[in-house]
């Protein structure tokens, strides 16, 4: 079955360039091996501590996770909550409302991935 895309207006070179630029910006912020995995786990788990987050993302090192969390926090996808009143100090990470705006994108990617996997299996 072939998917047909119906365009409302012809795409100009300028519009194409704008679309490419926007996609590049999005990929820069959420691209890479780990960022989307971190965002998905945080959205599914709610408040989660660093070690639990690391256990949920198989193969990520503590150093890489720490760097990715800093990056995601800088871009407004993750909030770091420090409970200094507890001993020892407890640090939790939560996804922000802004992070949850990615939910439709993540769901679309998930569905596309499932469809693609089926297609590849059928082709072989």
TrEMBL record:
The keyword NADP does not apply. GO terms for molecular function: DNA binding. Keywords: DNA-binding, Transcription, Transcription regulation. Residues 16-121 form the HTH hxlR-type domain. Gene3D superfamilies: Winged helix-like DNA-binding domain superfamily/Winged helix DNA-binding domain. Pfam families: HxlR. PANTHER family: TRANSCRIPTIONAL REGULATOR, TRANSCRIPTIONAL REGULATOR, MARR FAMILY. This is HxlR family transcriptional regulator. It comes from Chryseobacterium formosense. The lineage of its organism: Bacteria, Pseudomonadati, Bacteroidota, Flavobacteriia, Flavobacteriales.
